[in-house]
Each structure stands twice: as C-alpha cells, then as structure tokens.
Design brief:
10 strands; eight-stranded mixed beta sheet; 728 residues; single chain; phosphatidylinositol-4,5-bisphosphate binding; two-stranded antiparallel sheet; alpha+beta; 5 domains
Amino acid sequence: STAKDVFNPQNERLLEIVHVWKTGKKRKNSILCVAGECPGKKVKKADRGDQYKMTDRWPLKDLKLVDGKNVNQECLEFELQFDKVYKWTAVSADEKNAFIRCLWKLNRRYLSSSIAFVSIPSCMLEEVGNASAKAGDQAEHSAYQEMTPKETADMLKLMEEYEPIVNNSMAFAEKLSKELQVLDESNLDLSKKHRQALSRGDLSSPSKVKACIAAAEALSSCMNVQIQPGYRKLQAIAEQLIMFETLKQNFENSFISHITSIFELQHFLPHSFPFQVYAWNLSRLYEREIKAFFELARMLLLGRTKECNGVHRGIVPPSPSPNYQFLGWVFPSHLWVKSSAGANWQSSIACRGVMLIYTRWTFTAYLLLSFGAVFELHLPVSFCHPVHTSLAGPLPEQLCPNPLSVCDTYSRLEEQPTQLLSEIFSSLEPELRGFIDTCNKVQQFSCLQVLVTLNDYMFEMQGSSAATSSSFLNVGLSNILLLAKNNFNKCIVSQTRQSQWAKGGILPFVSRFEEFVNFSEDVFRWAQRRGELDKAHTKLVGSVFINSLASANLKVNTDMVMMENFHHIHCFLYQKKIQCLESKRREAKQRYREHLERYVTKYLGQPLEKLNHFFEGVKARVAQGVKEEEVSFQLAYSKQELRKVIEKYPGKEVKRALDTLYRKIHKYLSPEENLLPVVWRAMEQEFIRQYQEFENLIQRCYPGSGITMDFTVEDLLNYFISITQSSM
C-alpha cells in the first residue's frame, strides 16, 4: 500500500521500511522508507493516516552515521545522522535490523562504505556481506552504478588517445562537404536561349533588351566560377571557356555599334553646354573616389579591419608594402589594427587622431591638385582645343568656326572657379560632415582633433598665395570649421553638466574635467591657435568650482568632499601649468584650506562634545556682557557643573574618543588624495589650541578654584602619536 500510494506515482521503487516514532517524545507513528531512483537512493519519512503522505526526504549520500545503540542485546532505538541527529524507536527489532541491513548494502555498493555504522552486531553485517556476495539484489542491479575512479581514468585516457582521429575525421568530412557544394554550384552550362541572345545582340526592342541583359548576367556568372587550374586542362571545360569568351566579344561589338548609332552627335554636347557637361562628367568620377575614400576612413576609424581589407582590394591593386595606398595616399599599417578591449582609450583615440590628419592632407591635396588640373589642363584643352579632348572625342574644325567664343567661355569660367568646383566636388562636404559625425560617435573628444586640424589648415591658407584661387576650399572648409566649433561647444556644454548624485571622493565631473584637459592639451600641443581651448577651459573650470553640494545624497561630510576635490584640482592644475587657469589654481588652493578648516572645526567637538558645549556657553555669557569673574555664579556654569563635565573626560576617555575620531576620518577620506596625515595634523593643532583656550577660560572665569582637566598638552601629544603609530 505504501509503495502504491507514495512511490509508484513518482516512478520510485520501495526497498525497505520500518515503523518508528521519535525517541523521548509522545508516540506518533511514522514510517521510514528506503526508496531507489536513478541515479541514487533516498531515505524518506511518511506520516500514516487514512492516506500516506510524504513529509521529509534525505539523499542517502548525506547520511553520515548509523548508530544501533547496543551491540550485546536487542534494542529498538537507533539514530541516523544527516546534517543533524535523528533519534528513532522502531516497533520491532526485526524491522530495525532489516532496515539497517538495507542501508549497509546500499552503502557498500554505491557509496564505497562512506557511511559509518556503530553499535551494530558484526554478525548481522557479515551475514549481509556474504548474502550480497553470493546472490545480490536484482532490484539494485537494475539501478545505475557509478564508475570507479580507476574506470573513469581509463575511459578518459582512451578518449584522449583517439580524440585527434575523431577530429581529423570530422574535418575531412567537412572539407568533402564543402568541395561537393562548390562542385554543385560550379555550373559552366549556358542555356541555348542565352547563347542565341548574345550571338544576335539585338537591342531593338525593350523585350530583346531584357533578354540580352539576362543572357549577359548568366554569361557573367559562368565566367566568374572559380575553377581549379587542373580542371582547365579538361577538353570540355576548355571548349566552354572559349565559347564564353567568343560570345562576350561578339556581344560587346554589337553593343558598341548600337550605342554609336544612337549617339552619333554626342561630340556636339560639350559645346552646347560645356560648363554643365564638364562638371557632370568630373563630378561622377570624383564622387565615386571620394565616397570610397571616406568609407575606407570610417572603417579604419571603427576598427573594422576585415572590411577595410575588402574595400582596399576592390579599390586599388595589391601592394607588397605593409602600408595601404589609396588615391595616392598611404595609410600606415598600424592604423588597421583594432585596439584591444583593455587598451587605454587615449592611445586608441590618438591613432584615430592621426587618421584625421591623414584625411585632412588627403582631401586638401586632392582639391588643390584637382584645381590645378581643371584650370591648367582640362579647361584650356577642352574648350580652346576641343580636337584633343578625351571626353568629347575628335571634333571637326568646321564645327568650331569661332575659337574666340570658346575662349570667352573659358574666361567666364575662370571668373567663377568656386561655382565650378562646387559642382565637381559637390559630394565632398556631405562626406566630410558624415566623417566628423562618425568621429564624434567613436569618441566625444574627437571634436578637439578635428578643430585643431581645421584651424591649423585655415591659418596656413590665410598667408598662402593660393588662398585667392582656392576660394572654393576656403568656403567649404569654413563650413566644416563652423560645424567643428559647434560640436566642440556641445561637448563643453555636456561636460559642464554636474552629476546629481555622488558617493564622495573625487566627484565625477572633476574626473571628467581632468580627462578633458589631459586630452585637449595633448591634441593642442602643436596647434597654432588655442583661443577656443582657453575659452573652453575657463568655462569648464567654472562649472567645477562649485560652492556647495547637496548633502541629502551624501553619507559623508560635504566639507570633506569639497576639501578633497579642491585639493585634487589644485594639484592637477599645478602639474599642467596652464596660463589661463593660474588664477583658478590659486582659488582652488584657498578653497581647499577653507574647507579643511571647516571640516576640522566641525569634527573637533566630537571627542569632548559636552566640554565643548559648556565652554561655548561660557563664551556666550561673556559676550553678552557678564563679567568673567561672575560667570561661576551662573547656575548652569557654576564650579560644580564644570567639575561634573570635566569628570566625564578622563585621559583614557579622551584617548578613546580620539581613536574613534581617527578611524572615522580614515574610513571616509579618499585614499587617492592621501590627505589623512594632513587632516590629522590639523586636528592635532586645533585640538591643542582649543585645550589651551579652555585652560585660559578656567583661569579667567574660575580663578582660585583649583579646577584643572585630567590631561595635559603633553598627554594630548602622546595620544596623537600613539594613535598614528598604531594605525601604521
């Protein structure tokens, strides 16, 4: 019934039971059961009523000790020790012995005799051992049996021995699968319909044009199939490749003839609209190269080296040099290496700053060379001597009866170089703006590098002779410079926003200010202008020099936080030696001293709090006009009250209070600033000064009373020295 009601629904097998009750308590019958389930055994206790109900269960591996209580005579009591000891009394000795024998067998078979059996007759255990050796329990044999350590070691050794063979077989199977897939995809068969369309090359109707397009795409797919060198020697494949090349040449000839017949008068177009045609043709050429260049620059900036390699191979032929060339400009190979996750962000942004410099010189030289090419080569040849132009093709002399008109056109264009270059390089400014946006996304301080680069270039151009002729460059870069200044101002505004919550120590906006100054000074080190940077420093440092902190969010003293931060700012500005921030450095030093004094004054009253309050009251009475010798006649400040207060502060109590104060200061002070010795020294000096003030007040307000404090100045000095040495 127990197995049917409790264990069968859970797919468990009942091995043994014993009816028990707890020893020493009111008799309340329960049943201890040993049940088997893969992969282990568990011991359970169930209350018995109308229905059996599971109340507790323990894994057999958690059983530590089985105590039979008596070796010499039969005893109904026994103990099971798990995380605690459970004491039971069995209904009969036979059930108890059968239950213990079952535990003994399970312990020997599955737990390597890890359970201790004490106070149990040895004859009973030997009987169990002999019986299990002869027959064994069929139910237990059906359960899971763990491997011995030796079997486990042998199995692992065998697996390690044959692991390379298994891996090699898997790699070989994968390689075969890939080669089969390539062979399946390598289709060198071109349909008869496509062959006919390419042979005819008929483009007279839209339907035939579509058929030729489909055939050309199919031919391109066949010719782009990767074929191993050995396969090309096969006769069938060689014949197919020859046929593809023949179809390609025939279709190219047909297509060229068709285009030539349609655009017979195309060489007249440059002379009908020379300005627009020239700008349109060159703009397409430069737009493609400019976009490819900035796409490569963005990939380098983002560290996408694999994509950079793909773009690089698609734009320029491979070079044996370790550097990468593009549009005649060299990208050092170290720029292609993405920074590791643990690298310092400053070194990473420095490499990206170099990228900006390369970009600057590239598009600068690009435009200047293009400008010279336009006005020294292309325009005179194209418009004054159109016979030799490569864009328009040969033009008969009779079609240009008046060469002066062409020269007039050239003169008008020469007066409007900015307009012409704006149309030719219309894609340059949007690409530059996109590149700068990418820089800002990668690192917010990159706007500094952009600003320095553009400022230096504009400064160089102002004194150059090419400034007038390259007005297009001035206009375009002025717009980009304005964008860079706006980004720089936004960065400064974001840095001036103070954090609304802080735990103490060096505040976040102080750390951000230090980070910004370090980076900006490194960027502007060789800059020819730094007016914007000085303004930014002045604005930022104004946001750092706060007057107070909201103490609601701080668990420490606000004066302590302000003291540490102003000390940090002073030390940092002293190291940087920035001329425009010298006044702020001196102010930081002054503010640091003020907050140190406030902090010391506030915490000074804690060791002698009641004594401090008493003498504060004495000073208040004197300030109100009470004579010093009459203060002792005030009830609250009489000699008896003074003695009571002084008795509360013997030397040992003062030392204990100072030690508590030292540990509190040590707990809350930031370890980065190492201000503990400074603060503790200030505490010592102020404490001694206050002690001397109290002694002076006693002599002036309580003359002849003989009242003195329990400790002296020498005692205080020894207290401070002892506390300092004990903490080291």
